[in-house]
Amino acid sequence: MDGYMSEKLTPEEIRTLKYIANNYKTETNFFIKGGMLDIAFQVCKKHELTLENLKSKERTRDHVIARIEFTKRCIKELNKSFNAIGRFLNKDHTTVLYYKNKKYGE
CA-to-CA distance for 32 and 29, rounded, in angstroms? Predict the structure, then answer.
């Protein structure tokens, strides 16, 4: 395979492609460029986390700060509701409200 897709995919890229394939019909609004998934990948890259870490139940400082940044960006840039962000993160809307009101990184 010369040219297109000649490089091997990283494990993170493989997981991302599987996630997209599994959720394409139910979560198409997340895949718009500049959408929630795009913001999630940017936040994960910045904080050196995986998408699974961002959505996990882990409450370490790094994970929580990444979720706070993700939440604030989705509200500011995409005008997403607390419920929509909560569904994406597998959290309750009240948790998203808590993240919105935190003052980390400002």
Answer: 6
